[in-house]
Amino acid sequence: MAAPTAAEQRWLGAARDFFLRALPGPDGQEAAALEAVLRCLRSAGGGTLPLGYSFISISDLQHQQHIPCCSHLSWSTNEFKEWSRQGQGALPMQSTLPRTYLILVGYLADGRQENKEKLVDGCLYVKDKTGIILCELLHFKLEWLESLLVFPSWSYIPQRDQSAAGYLEILVDPVPVNGPKEVLHSIPVTSAVSAEPLLTSRIPYKKRSKLTVAGELTRLGPLLRIHHKTFFFLFLKCFASAVCVPVLVQKPSQMLWHRVFQLGHRYTVTGLSMSSMKKSGQTILVTSASSCLLPYCAEQEREQPLNSAWRGESTQSSCLETAEQLSCSLQLGAEEEKSGPTKESRIISYVGFVTKVLNAQAGLFLLDNQVCLCLAYQPLLSSARGLRPGACVELIDVHLLQKPLASFPFAVLGACLSSMVVLKSFSRLSTPYQPVGSSRSLCLQLLLRFNLGMPLYLWLVSLLETFEERFSCFFGRSRLLSSTHQNPGAAAKFLVPLLQAMVPDRQEARDIYNEILSKIHQCPLQKYLTLTPPCQAPSLSEVRRVAEQRSWEGFSPSQLLSPLEAQHMGTQELNRRLAWSYCTFSAESFQPQLILLGVLRVSSRSSSLQLQDKSSKLPCVISHKDGSPFAQTALIGSLLLVENYQLVVERFLKTDFPSWEHLENLEHVREKKTSVYVQFYLEDVRVLHAAEGRIQKSLRSGNCSSLRKSKDGSTASELETPEAKMLKSEDPRADDGRDENCQGGQSSSTSCVSQLFLVIQKESLMLRNYQLPAEEAKEAQELQRSFQATVLWLGRPRLWSHPREIGDLSELEETGCDGKEGVMQKEALLLFVGRSLRWFPFLHVEGLYRCIVPGCSLTAMSMQTGVEQRAASIPEVLSSSFTGSLVSFCGEIVERTLCASPKNEKPPVMTGVPKKKGTPQHFTLLSTDHSVKLSISAASSSPVVLDVYITATYLQHLRGLLPGAKILFHNLERKISRFHNVYCTYIASSCVSIVSLPASHLPFPSGPAGEASSPSLVFLCNLRPQLSQARILCHLSCVLTVCLQWICSLCSCIFKEGRCTRHNPPCPSQTGVRQASARVLVEDGTGEAVVLCRNEHVAAVLGLSLLEWEAVQNCVQSRGSVCIQHGEAPGTGCLEESEDLVVCYLRSLCRSPLICRPILLDFSLDRKPSKILQPAPPQLRNFRCGEVEFVSRVGPRPSLLCLKVEEVGQDALRYLNSQRRSRTSSSC
Ligand SMILES: [Zn+2]
Ligand SMILES: [Zn+2]
User: Fold this and answer.
1) Distance from the CA of 557 to the center of ligand 2, in angstroms?
2) How far does the centroid of ligand 2 lie from the alpha carbon of residue 656, in Å?
3) What is the pLDDT of residues 118-153, one digit of tens each?
4) How much is the pTM?
């Protein structure tokens, strides 16, 4: 042998150092061990030492190697390239493992000696003096255990995080350095044991006698751990009889056998005893401490005839299915699917590559990009090490389930306890390892607890995946998912009730022994039903997207208008009526039903409550069912679940439709926007995770109103901690760390001051001309968004050495604040700017709060609901005797309409205010000169209506003003129009609070205001000014005027022969709109009234059919306008021209005695009569109604607006008249 070169010398020196450090043998034998290893290396390298490689110790590997890598001793570059190339077959986009040049030498161990306490679980380790590391092998021989081995080819998959320990994949069988003699441990592995005991097989089965069984391995059960005991079953087929013998292997030292067994190979097991299963009485063989596993050797052994006890048939391994065959059978299955709802899974075998880890925690892997492997039903003690993308697995006797879940895209191969999952080859790709869920994983826990079938399990996994994705950034994964029976985590609180509803009659628990041993296969995967998920809980951005999409789905502008009205509208009015609409969705509007989940937040930027998840925020409006306002600051930061809600989509349209005829042409829709929010009752909320672990007693006990009436203070709680953190990301400027002081426990020495106050008045949120002292210089010119409240300070400020000490309401009692005299009270105006704007949704009039400084946090102490009673009633506000300009009242919104701001109601000047970045953009499509008119009635059935006008600028912060909602208005300005109508406007000192949400049974409210039921029948003599709508039975005395016109839709000038008649300046309009009006005189025996009819009501009052009406209007088109007046002589109106046909027709119609007839008229009081009526002295007059004559004293004629005209038949007339007479006589 040639003398070693210098390089060799250096290499050998390093090798010696390595051996001393990592592999010190028994005294004085290091040299021998090193020699042996070198011999191995030389022979592997064709006689030369692998000088390009260096030894690596286990500890160095673990600490220095941070990415997956592989090492192949003695491979050429080409060999390695070829190996890599082949490995990319399944996933061509993945990079292969990078190659390192490291020599791994060490001992294989099962971990028992390292840690006596440790449960033996069949894991294998490579160890040296420096450390120990888990390893996976494709083949294992017992004689390798505890012998010094050289590993010629291996991959190292490092630890990624705490959850997954790094491990080795042994790609090529290790080479024993000293041959099998090195065995330190005493498992007899050779044929040294004589065949003698095997020959004693004729002995009948006695309890004590030990048996030896030989046979072919037909099935190998998975390693199981139950009650801290690890074991597995194997099945040997005796050669002659084809009888299958189950053997239970249960001794810790025998767990490694599990790695030795290979299907179809023949083995001999000694030292077995008979036992029978307690439950089924089935007989099995059980290993004893002296049991040995021997390779079967035909010459030495003779088969022992088995008793007929083993009559059972072996499970027949179905033939292997390739990927192509599987696709075929999947298609076949798709056809079969139609036959019946309950499907039977087919048992197949399959070989395929892992192409994706779908969800390691749930044990879901994608094979060959086409079928999902589910390992959840087969506990994997090895945590599926090796199942990285790129690895090849063989599945034997797994269940094939087609479409177990409607929303799950793959067919599923479910491995049960009688299935085998065998790793065929390791991945050659640089893919990470994700451990499958341990018994602590929530989905596996629930799988066992509810004994879930595959469809429900997959659904559960998908819910949990979304849940985790959405909320782990708020609370941390472990806090969300952790779950024990006593203390379920948020995820469990969410999922368990769902599962309880789905699995009402809990199927009996899984009998795992039966599942493994039963001759007729029984397991949860056999039968299944395709599950259509009963509910969903998607991310908020998805909720928003779906709601927006649904709100425009099938939307057409014509839905928003009644065609009868729309055809007479000019351009401006038409487009304004389209500009703002809304629709609402409930949980049931979605398929499957949609559950809302979100963390409750309050934004100081938008001053609104929000539900939040990782994806988005959804503004929300929260009310109490008893009408008290929502003020629970303690809920901020809590994770809420809402199943009962109204999701509101406000739609904003910018359109330029010239007239109603163009409504179908969507080109005229210039811009569409939506604003989505949700409203719900606090009583419908479930708290899944209380903020900062605070227990929401009031919510838990279902007694949500206790906050309001708490005198014991049990519900008083602070809000500081969680929310202070949350806000940081949102508004860093205003958050200069002050709040940290208030965090319980953080700064123990911080003292704070608390002060109680009662809110007397709260004003609206708007830009005000205030400056923060600190920012005076910076933003001297800028208006501050702010709100203010007038409060009453109660008692004196109290000093606390720590915020934690601020207890409950006891101080209230101490200071005697509960309404008694002698309390120090001082009125003050509180201004809320910057960060404290977030208290806007929580502050309510009559609410008692505690303010804590520093940190300026608020706690609602109690809410009085007396406000409602102290407010005026709507009839009071409408009454002319009402004095006072600011009014508060409560009522239900009947109708919401957008209108042009009254000319005298200029909105607060906003011009010149630079738009701040991040200003809420909800109502950007409503121009600021718009305002909304809310018609408020005292109760839904009441005819008395008060109109409230709110300009668009205030609307930004007012959510939930929807028809059907009951609202408490504070401090509106009461005004009287020039027609003596009372109305209210929302001003800077006003505020609203929502008393109740619209009833959810309201019809889809996208159309015009809902049709009210027929109004009550009245007499003309008792009309009261507050009346909004009523009905009279009357006689049409005469038609005073009729006017039919075509007017320009843009400028309202007369439109004639397809052109606008305006010349100066010329009008470009192409569109005319027909309008009609008529004034008729009616009387009902008690009085007389002038009725103004518009458009289609003109036809009704003239008794024209729709066809006749169309014809008449079309005749007007060429004339522009046709008007007639009562009493005008024929020909007087149009002397210069020959008598017009249409005029003639209309005149004769009006004069016809047929027109004077009884009608049923629905009307409202005309609040804007064309001329103000002068009160005339009452006079006596004669009236006729049908055949009846009346003499009556009449006052001035009221002016009515026609809403509906109905013809009255003779029978109906007689009946109504008799009714009237009886009422009149009783009332007169
Ligand atoms: Zn099964
Ligand atoms: Zn015009």
Assistant:
1) 24
2) 15
3) 667 788 999 988 989 999 999 898 888 888 899 999
4) 0.77
